[in-house]
């Protein structure tokens, strides 16, 4: 099934679920479970949260074409298990984190969201991975007034849309990421000709559109574009077409499976040797390793959180804690995998956001995630913080460039705050 068909099915399912939600949303303050509610907190929703418990639900592609992302919830669960065992949970509440598999299929994501909200009665949806899956579920989550917190997708609409206040992103949005690459090229290759491979959905189009907009008025030009569908078996045909453009820069806007394919195809095309930029979501060591490290030397990307295999963090307090607790609470998971560190970082971000909530309610979490003020998260790069506010629903908008050398990524340059460099992002 092609993505367009998937999206159509997802949209239909989402509309039906939204109608169901409108009819069955119920009253405020349901299932309080003994949670304290006084003053301004009275009457607010406390489903899934009690004096000693907090239930969250995450939706990931544990199977299917984006299954590499299945490492993320392992890092999240390790963090929550550590906090539950050694810090008495979050605010005295032990966190139960339920993980569901949608196979990167939007209709399945809607089905799992409904199961988590209506049957498991979670307090919040914490991490829905992927732009298509989150697009399919956010109408339902917002109709039910269930926080959909720190979704694992960088689509700009999570921060610019005003009709879905219960949904918010976490990682740098794709427009901000595109701005970082554009600024790098303007400085290092001001006359570059760029060929682009992108996923044919909101994710790919968002990053490509932001890239083109950031290049307006410069000497850098996009001279070739090729898209792919998540149902495609390979992107080799697209890569051969792009090679024919003779562009001197290749922008690889893909998810992990197709990122590996594009990197491998680039290595085989001996008559084409462009500067290869791979977007952050496909820049994991697990994507590069199957291609052969000798074939990905000098590939560049951008990041915002610490890489577990970067020796500069060897004595970093948070990295030492992360490594120790991953080995204790997720003994089958390799702490060196960056997606595990991503999960740890986003779980830590949720912890701080929940602690800052003025009410231990769904409304309290919603308000807290939209009122973050330079929140320090130790697993993020120095200089990268969480900030949101009125008219700004983008928690992270700073990144730093990195280059693959030897068997790891090496940071270079300074952290780029795209808010200051380019102004606010609008959808």
Automatic annotation (TrEMBL):
The keyword NAD does not apply. CDD domains: PBP1_ABC_ligand_binding-like. Pfam families: Peripla_BP_6 (PF13458). The keyword Signal applies. It comes from the Bacteria. Coiled coil: none annotated. PROSITE patterns: PROKAR_LIPOPROTEIN. Keywords: Signal. SUPFAM superfamilies: Periplasmic binding protein-like I. InterPro entries: Leu-bd, Peripla_BP_I. Belongs to the leucine-binding protein family. This is Branched-chain amino acid transport system substrate-binding protein. It comes from Actinomadura viridis.
């Amino acid at each position: 099934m092609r993505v367009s068909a998937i999206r159509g099915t997802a949209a239909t399912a989402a509309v039906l679920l939204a109608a169901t939600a409108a009819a069955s949303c119920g009253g405020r303050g349901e299932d309080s479970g003994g949670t304290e509610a006084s003053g301004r907190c009275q009457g607010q929703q406390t489903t899934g949260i009690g004096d000693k418990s907090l239930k969250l639900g995450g939706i990931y592609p544990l199977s299917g074409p984006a299954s590499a992302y299945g490492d993320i919830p392992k890092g999240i669960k390790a963090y929550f298990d550590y906090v539950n065992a050694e810090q008495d949970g979050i605010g005295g509440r032990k966190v139960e984190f339920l993980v569901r598999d949608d196979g990167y299929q939007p209709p399945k994501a809607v089905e799992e969201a409904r199961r988590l909200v209506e049957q498991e009665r979670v307090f919040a949806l914490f991490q829905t991975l992927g732009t298509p899956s989150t697009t399919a579920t956010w109408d339902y989550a917002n109709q039910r007034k269930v926080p959909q917190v720190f979704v694992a997708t960088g689509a700009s609409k999570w921060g610019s849309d005003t009709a879905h206040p219960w949904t918010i992103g976490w990682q740098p949005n794709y427009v901000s990421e595109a701005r970082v690459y554009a600024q790098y090229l303007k400085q290092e290759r001001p006359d570059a000709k760029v060929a682009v491979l992108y996923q044919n959905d909101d994710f790919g189009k968002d990053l490509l559109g932001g890239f083109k907009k950031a290049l307006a008025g410069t000497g850098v030009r996009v001279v070739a574009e090729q898209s792919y569908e998540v149902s495609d078996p390979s992107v080799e045909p697209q890569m051969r077409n792009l090679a024919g453009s003779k562009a001197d820069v290749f922008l690889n806007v893909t998810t992990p499976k197709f990122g590996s394919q594009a990197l491998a195809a680039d290595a085989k095309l001996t008559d084409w040797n462009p500067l290869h930029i791979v977007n952050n979501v496909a820049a994991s060591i697990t994507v590069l390793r199957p291609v052969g490290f000798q074939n990905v030397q000098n590939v560049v990307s951008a990041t915002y959180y610490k890489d577990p295999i970067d020796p500069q963090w060897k004595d970093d307090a948070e990295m030492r804690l992360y490594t120790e607790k991953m080995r204790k609470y997720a003994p089958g998971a390799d702490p060196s995998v960056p997606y595990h560190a991503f999960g740890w970082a986003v779980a830590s971000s949720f912890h701080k956001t929940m602690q800052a909530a003025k009410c231990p309610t769904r409304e309290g979490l919603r308000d807290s995630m939209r009122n973050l003020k330079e929140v320090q998260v130790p697993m993020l790069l120095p200089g990268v913080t969480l900030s949101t506010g009125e008219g700004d629903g983008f928690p992270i908008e700073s990144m730093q460039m990195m280059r693959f050398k030897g068997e790891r990524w090496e940071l270079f340059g300074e952290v780029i705050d795209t808010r200051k460099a380019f102004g606010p992002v609008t959808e």
